[in-house]
TrEMBL record:
UniProt-listed InterPro entries: Memb_transporter_dom (IPR049453)
Record protein name field: FUSC family protein
Transmembrane segments: 21-44, 50-67, 74-94, 100-117, 129-148, 154-179, 416-434, 440-460, 467-483, 489-506, 513-531, 543-560
Keyword Cell membrane recorded: yes
The keyword Lipid metabolism belongs to this UniProt entry's keyword annotation: no
Length: 746
């Protein structure tokens, strides 16, 4: 029974880790709710007025969620600076809220400064957010000069409560966050292997469903890998350790994605295209048969289950003879003589399982350190030697290239500050026409729709989502206010629940977050004895007005059109893709070593930025269906290109240590066409008048020469396949991007 209980707890822990990588959402929710609860507890002991309770709760929330630095020391400095900013802001709000013109003008200036402060990094963003939100708080609770001493005391208490929760009760050190992210990666890797097992057994009628689960698992694994990349420098003791973890995470991700492709190929009538894994809604290839052959299928099921168990136990400190036996068997598939009799496609799957087991072994060593080697087979010992040689070759180095900084109104923070100031001025005028008492809701919405957005389309979609969440939140607020009535502490308890839900759901759905915010505000109005149906309806009107003002300002004042924004990011992705491809091919051709994993990480980040920027183009409310499908197709093709480029980079870094991979000088010339095509497409995206054409011609394999030299004598088949798939995907980008393609030369 005790063992069963441990197994249940382990499964629950893995499920939570996979759904909330690093427990970042859970930590944010608990920390914020804890700070608010502590503030309310102390204020209630002091028997303060309900207005101070509301002010203290809102201040504790702001003081907690505004701080975003990763290092605890930097967080402490920002929190300490935030308190005087908050006290100054609430004081100015109390003095100016009765002076219509001066107060409104100051609010616009404050908004401009708060947004402009983003150019100074996380600290500038946090202090600007605190200044704006606390000024809004002073308007919400009706602060006056007479109540300032009590309000300042509540603010100070709120900041102290936030500090206590952040640094003592719910601490989140960079090392701890990175450790939890590693566990999340392991859990999501196990989920992806489980999805691959389902794909193996899926009947023909359910292949699309199984493929969608495989896509989702692949994307979630990549998301966690990117989160880990962003935390490596702060969460590891030195640069060498960071690079080791980076390498092992990249190996595991590539091996898992490749295994999924090989499985899909084995189940279908033709070789699976990598694009199938990256294009949402793409139909599954036709199934070759109802199921795998009995003997081969049974062996594959057994070994995929074994790989799943191996992944779950990697990094958990679990050791034992059973685990060693499973690991040794799977690693044996890296040797041709150990492959079971089956078709070529099925044998490729067994090879993929062997490579995945090697990646899991490397991940385990990176997380747990050296392992017991007493039960190693020759195949396992050889894998360890390869990993040890790779680890020894990893060193620090490479300085970040200085990025060209834009100046004046071209700087994004300056442009956004001007836009928000204009939009807020419009929201103030329109909001006061709707209500002289609660006009600030329109300003708040205008402010929020500009957060983390960079184009008119993004602002439009965010405004739509906020309005939708607000409408449903008003309905929930009406219901909750009717149920709670005048039960103050019941209302505060529900407020805490809604705040936790708001922070936990924020990264998942902006509409859902807006719903929880509005429902919470309905309860706060009840506590302030200002609740009425008219007030909540007015909230919808002010929200719609604020969103409209934000869109108008974004469209008319220094506008950044969605197409222009996506084209800029698309150009960046293509530049990064060309850099990674050229550097990887250069190293595979015998050139000097380069910081390939860093370049691959930059490619992944630029692709993530592009994916986020295309959301307005692929949103369901977008009326242009053709453009929506084109955007999805282009992003999927780029993800396919990035996968092949990442794999080439990882393979190139194996050159100094892997005995079966050697440099082949012929590769540089053979892959030159691919790099030129990427550069041609990038030039066309930057300038529609560019006249260069994408080249086509013989396959990469045929370009390696026909002089009698063995085609694959000095490079692996895998390298060649990735080069060919990358070349095909790059040529495939030409059509949706309207880049002319030259006819093959006869």
């Amino acid at each position: 029974m005790r063992g069963a209980g441990r197994a249940v707890r382990a499964r629950l822990r893995d499920r939570i880790a996979a759904s909330d990588p690093g427990l970042l959402r859970l930590t944010a929710g608990l920390r914020t709710v804890g700070a608010i609860a502590l503030t309310l507890a102390v204020l209630s002991l002091l028997q303060t007025d309900v207005h101070l309770l509301v002010a203290g709760a809102m201040a504790a929330m702001v003081a907690t969620f505004a701080i975003r630095e990763k290092q605890l020391g930097a967080q402490a400095v920002t929190l300490a600076l935030g308190l005087p900013v908050a006290l100054a802001s609430v004081s100015l709000g109390a003095v100016l809220n009765t002076r219509l013109v001066v107060g409104d003008a100051f609010f616009v200036v404050l908004i401009f400064c708060a947004v402009y402060g983003r150019r100074f990094g996380d600290r500038g963003t946090a202090l600007g957010l605190i200044g704006f939100q606390v000024y809004f708080l002073s308007l919400f609770v009706g602060a006056t000069v007479g109540t300032l001493p009590e309000l300042c005391g509540a603010m100070t208490l709120a900041f102290c409560s936030s500090a206590l929760m952040r640094f003592a009760v719910v601490p989140a050190t960079p090392t701890g966050v990175l450790l939890r992210l590693r566990l999340a990666f392991r859990a999501r890797l196990a989920q992806l292997v489980a999805a691959q097992l389902e794909l193996l057994d899926a009947p023909a009628a359910e292949m699309d469903k199984a493929l969608e689960a495989l896509r989702d698992g692949t994307a979630r694994l990549h998301e966690t890998a990117m989160m880990i990349q962003g935390r490596l420098e702060e969460g590891t003791p030195d640069e060498s350790a960071a690079r080791l973890v980076q390498r092992r995470i990249a190996d595991a991700e590539i091996a898992a994605e490749r295994l999924g492709l090989l499985l899909l190929t084995a189940r279908t009538a033709e070789r699976a295209d990598t694009l199938t894994l990256h294009l949402p809604g793409a139909p599954a290839p036709s199934v070759a048969g109802p199921e795998m052959p009995d003997e081969a299928g049974a062996t594959l099921r057994r070994d995929l289950r074994a790989l799943h168990a191996l992944v779950l136990r990697a990094g958990s400190g679990d050791t034992g003879t059973g685990l060693a036996h499973v690991r040794n068997r799977l690693l044996g598939y890296r040797d041709e003589e150990n492959l079971p009799p089956a078709s070529a496609a099925v044998q490729d799957v067994f090879r993929g399982i062997g490579e995945s087991a090697r990646a899991v072994l490397g991940l385990r060593i990176a997380l747990d350190g050296p392992q017991d080697e007493s039960d190693d087979t020759p195949a396992t010992a050889r894998s360890r030697e390869e990993l040890d040689a790779e680890d020894a070759a990893i060193d620090g180095g490479g300085e970040e290239a200085a990025q060209e900084e834009q100046t004046g109104l071209r700087r994004p923070t300056t442009r956004a500050a001007v836009q928000v100031a204009v939009g807020s001025a419009l929201a103030i005028v329109g909001g006061e026409l709707l209500s002289t008492q609660r006009w600030y809701w329109a300003v708040l919405t205008c402010w929020i729709v500009f957060l983390n957005t960079a184009s008119t389309g993004e602002i439009l979609v965010k405004g739509y989502r906020r309005l939708l969440g607000t409408v449903f939140g008003v309905v929930a607020g009406i219901v909750l206010a009717g149920l709670v009535g005048k039960h103050t502490w019941t209302a505060f308890a529900l407020v805490l629940v809604l705040i936790f839900a708001m922070f936990y759901s924020a990264p998942l759905s902006y509409t859902l977050m807006s719903f929880f915010v509005t429902a919470m505000l309905g309860l706060l109005y009840t506590l302030l004895h200002t609740y009425s149906l008219d007030v909540l309806v007015l909230r919808i009107e002010e929200t719609a007005l604020g969103a409209a003002c934000g869109v108008v300002a974004a469209a008319l004042v220094l506008p950044v059109q969605t197409d222009r924004r996506t084209n800029e990011l698309l150009g960046t992705v293509l530049e990064r893709l060309a850099e990674v491809t050229e550097a990887a091919v250069g190293q595979l051709s015998g050139g000097p070593a380069d910081e390939l994993l860093d370049k691959a990480r930059d490619l992944d980040q630029s692709l993530a930025d592009l994916r986020a920027a295309t959301q307005p183009l692929i949103h369901p409310v977008t009326p242009l269906r053709t453009r929506r499908n084109t955007a999805r197709y282009v992003v999927a093709l780029l993800e396919t290109c990035a996968y092949h480029a990442r794999t080439l980079a990882a393979t190139a870094e194996l050159l100094p240590t892997h005995p079966s991979i050697a440099a082949d000088p012929r590769l540089r010339g053979a892959a030159g066409r691919t790099v030129r095509n990427i550069e041609t497409i990038a030039a066309r995206v930057a300038d529609e008048q560019a006249g260069a054409q994408v080249e086509t011609g013989p396959s990469i394999a045929s370009l390696l020469g026909s002089d009698g030299t063995p085609r694959y004598g000095r490079i692996t088949d895998r390298v060649l396949r990735h080069l060919e798939r990358l070349d095909e995907a790059v040529v495939g980008l030409a059509r949706p991007l309207d880049v002319p393609v030259a006819a093959p030369k006869g």
